[in-house]
Amino acid sequence: MRHWLFFLIMLTAAAVSVSAKTTTVYEPPFRPQSAEIMAQGGSFNANGSGFYSLFSNPASFADKDASLTVLSTSPWLYALPTAAVVDSLGGMIEDPESGIIGLNDLLTGPGFGAGVSVGVGYVGNGLGLGLVNVADVFAQGPNTLGVHVDSHITVGFIGGFALPVRLGPVTLKIGGAFRPMYRVHVPELGIGTFARLLGDDSDGIQINEPVYHGVGLALDAGTIVTLGPLSVGVALRDLFGTAFSYSESTVTELMDALKAVSLPEGGELVGDEVRFVVPMTVHAGATFHPNLGAVSRIIDPAVHLNWEYPVTPGQDTGSLWTSLHAGTEVDFFSRIRLRAGINQGYLTAGAGIHLFFADFNVAYFGRELGSFAGSKQNQGITAELALRF
Q1: What three-state secondary structure class fits 304?
Q2: DSSP of 215-250, one letter per residue?
């Protein structure tokens, strides 16, 4: 297994550096900030199940317990909802510049942003299907004038299969998935320009900063080996790297398209000199889920960890701590779930409640934006409200 893993990593490295004349820009993965996952330290590889296994290990599709998510909506905030933050966000509606000034300490420090995801999906009995929209905005800079806003809106379909194989006491699950996606990427928009877009007088303003929009096709593969209470999983997300075929337009053209409830018209094709790629990410993890018999109906604990390595040749991938995720979940009466974990060296915590067909989950998390744990922490909160059967 180690030889195959090394071969895949080297092959990916060669593929993304095939042309010395092409600049590679690494895009963020297609993944919502799930309250269920982030509360557990971002670890969801060998222990993944249900809707959010669409964004982790496709081998989880082989689970016997099927889950139908009629609707899942998750908002998140890359900051803590202090009184100052809430007041600034509220004031931004009437006076965008004043609201942004109120967030200055965050914007020039750990950063500030928000996002939301909306999706539907079915997972279980060897099948994984989902349709999800993820929008994410994050702003940060060394000083007020140097703050830039980076935005992504991605719509993706996930389709995958998994097969369980029993080898005596060992169960082997093997799965794969494909993800066609459409993404709109507004890179590094100046904070002043962003404030003008939020203002009442935004109509008629010509903003010629670039907007990239186009399609990409991702492939995922994974396996989970289970022996008694112990499971070990390996997943390759965005196999060989997922390249987006982008066209370039302007911010004004994008805003006009949104007002007309349409997609931006095709602009100049980007790709000869710049290559936009979501890097392949290698996940390796384990979970310990003891079978407590009849007691598990009252209390059902599990602990797990996951090592995550993005294959980004030529870039610093960070330290061991920034790649490590660990967490635990304790299920009480199959209704209440308490969660905690460590995400890139920072504590996380959260809870969930399941009532009839409704799921509500909430989480606090910290994440590392620098190369080493403790160098550039960004805190946040996320929640989910879902209807599941």
Answers
A1: strand
A2: EEEEEEEEEEEEETTEEEEEEEESTT-EEEEEEEEE
Q: At what angle do helices 191-198 and 251-259 cross, to 10 degrees?
A: 20
Amino acid at 119: G
Confidence (pTM): 0.90
Whether the CB-CB separation of 123 and 60 falls below 8 Å is answered with yes
Q: Which secondary structure element, helix H or strand E, spans residue 206, and what is its range?
A: none
CATH topology of domain 2-388: Porin (2.40.160)
C-alpha span between 143 and 107 (Å, rounded)? 8
Q: Name residue, tokens 């006491």.
A: 169
Residue ranges per domain, the chain? 2-388
Do 196 and 215 meet the contact criterion of CB atoms below 8 Å apart? no
**How far are the Cα atoms of 48, 171, 267, 285 from residue 232, in angstroms, in the given order?**
11, 11, 46, 6
The rounded distance, in Å, linking the Cα atoms of 154 and 147 is: 23
Helix intervals (H) in 267-351: 320-323
Chain mean position to CA 3: 29
Q: Compute mean pLDDT per 10 residues along the chain, 389 residues long, and list them.
A: 49 47 88 97 94 97 95 97 90 82 91 97 97 97 90 97 96 98 93 78 75 95 97 97 93 79 70 85 97 94 96 80 95 96 96 96 94 85 97
Helix (H, G, I), strand (E, B) or coil at 6: helix
Look at the chain and count its residues. 389
Taking a C-beta distance cutoff of 8 angstroms, is the pair 173, 60 a contact?
yes
